[in-house]
Amino acid sequence: MKKAIFITVRTGSKRLKNKALVEINGVPVITRIIRRVKKSKKANGVVLCTTERKQDDVLVKIAEEEGIEYFRGSEEDKLERWNGAAQKFGVEFFVTADGDDVFCEPELIDLAFEQYERNNPDFIDWNYKLICGSFTYGVKASALKKVCQIKDSENTEMMWVYFTDTGLFKCEEPENFDDIFKKPELRMTLDYPDDLRFFKTVIDHFEIDLSREDYNLREIVAYLDEHPEVVKINQHLMQDYLDNQKRLTKLKIKK
């Protein structure tokens, strides 16, 4: 598969235990994410990237049930996990979706694939310009392979600096996206109980109140514009999220 979507997920979450398996209206979070990214029109395939721990067997089972590929690799080293998946499946460029980004948006994913075809970047970084949780990164596999050769750490959860801060790669921000997605103050990632309450409120609106299963991020944003009280459910967590990312971001290069 030349272009792929990598879903990065494991069950070892600390703040909200087993968040990938938490069910909202009877559907596990990870299943919701898989079904969302499968709506991409540009991806040649979807790969669930998880660990070799026995606890993550359940994620592999879900991937099989949903008809997507999976790769099992390092627990801590996300970059090596991606690198192994890219090599196994012959991936040239991939877009990532984290296992806590319940509303990751296929439209933005496809824009990243188009940007790669147009500009041939090594790395596309959301750079806090888009809705938190709507899009993460686009990565060229050959650039990732080089990063894995030069990095001097296995803790690569906060990994973008190996692309953006080394001066070795062509890095870009997302292009051609609609201003409706330019709302970084919105928090759509699952880490805490209040995040879960936010997602359940939005999902209940569409799936219970409106009896709809197929709704996109544009519609979600329109709903939130009309209901600022829902935004406030978890918006107070944004600064903690940003501070935590800054604290954990470290660049360690081999001498």
What are its keywords?
255 residues; alpha/beta; Spore Coat Polysaccharide Biosynthesis Protein SpsA, Chain A; seven-stranded mixed beta sheet; two-stranded antiparallel sheet
Q: Determine the number of helices (DSSP H or I, runs of at least 4 residues).
A: 10
What is the C-alpha radius of gyration, as a whole number of Å?
A: 17 Å
Within CATH, the superfamily carries the name Spore Coat Polysaccharide Biosynthesis Protein SpsA, Chain A
Widest sheet: strand ordering: 5-4-1-6-8-7-9
Structural class: alpha/beta
Number of strands: 9
Return residue spans where pLDDT drops below 50 for at least 5 consecutive residues. Answer: none
* Mean pLDDT across every amino acid position: 95
Overall shape:
globular
The name CATH uses for the topology is: Spore Coat Polysaccharide Biosynthesis Protein SpsA, Chain A
Could you give the distance between the termini? 35 Å
Protein architecture, described:
The protein is an alpha/beta fold and 255 residues long. The protein has a single domain (3-248), classed as Alpha-Beta Complex (Spore Coat Polysaccharide Biosynthesis Protein SpsA, Chain A), CATH 3.90.550.10. It has helices spanning 29-37, 57-65, 78-89, 106-119, 141-150, 161-164, 193-209, 217-226, 228-235, 238-248; strands at residues 3-8, 23-24, 27-28, 45-51, 69-73, 93-98, 123-125, 137-140, 171-172. The strands form two sheets. The protein has a seven-stranded mixed sheet, with helices on both faces. Strand 2 (23-24) and strand 3 (27-28) form a beta hairpin. Helix 3 (78-89) packs across helix 5 and helix 7 packs antiparallel against helix 9. It is globular and about 55 Å long. The two termini are 35 Å apart. The relative contact order is 0.15. The mean pLDDT is 95.
